[in-house]
Structure of MPN domain-containing protein:
Amino acid sequence: MKSDILHLVKPSSLASTALSPLTVNVVIQPTALFSIFEASLRIQEGNSRVIGTLLGSRSDDNSNIDIRDAYIVQHNEQGDNVTVNEYNHKTFLNIYKKTSPKIMIVGWFSTISSLDIYSSLINNFYLDGNYSIPIVHLTLDSIDPSSNLPSVPKFDTYISTMVGKSAVNDQNSTVFVPIPHTLNYSSQEKNLLSWVSKAKDQSNSSVLLPSGQSTELINLSNDLKDVDDLIDKVSNYVSQVVNGEIEGDDEVGKYLLSNIPASPNNLGISKIEHLFNSHIQDTLMLEYLASSIKTQIELSAKLTTVV
């Protein structure tokens, strides 16, 4: 006999306090990413992946997570079960806390891109029964399956959410939701990586750094060349779309329309050179004034001491 009654289940208090995946912002520091890359080359026999702990900080409302470092945690996969070496995990955590007392566990990483039953079990280990605080799961795919050699790395970030009537420790009730992430790096780190990328194309995997020249000017010149190449690519793309050679992308068109009017596209080369030279002169004048004020302050301090 069919029933016309609709049964509703009241959400648990744990589920109601959980943060929505759309409100979580993840920032990854290069030091953590390099540690994970290195870990991907240390897969133990019998395991399909390397796992480890992500360390960093989180905001008071848990909406911003900063991943600063990572370390490997030993584990063993056997059948449908996985064993995590908790002693190894806590030992490394205590070592990190001695140098950085404010650092905390913000998630865990795995060196395969797929999500399976082991992912749920390991994730429950890091949740440790606290389902209200988001735990980031970072997956890395850096090995080419056809050649079993390192390839261009690809990584994604997820947070887990529980489905069902209650948040129980059940691997079948875990769903991993993709969340956006940002890789944070400085200009110095970018320049260093550019030299490393040049070395990988050499037969001896090395590159000779320039001597007797300003490294900053060389980096500036390389950056300007990259910008010039990007402008050529955009110009060629627009020409092909206008001529009907390829089909245009609406999102790319909207992006170009919103950004091009803000650029100085009506300025000639002579005007740009004049503005650039004026800017350099203003910068040099400020440096000269700052140096003069510093000298006067030091001289005044010495005269005061003599008197």
Notes: Strands lie at 25-28, 51-58, 64-73, 75-78, 81-84, 104-110, 136-144, 149-162, 174-179, 181-183. Confidence is low (pLDDT under 50) at residues 6-18.
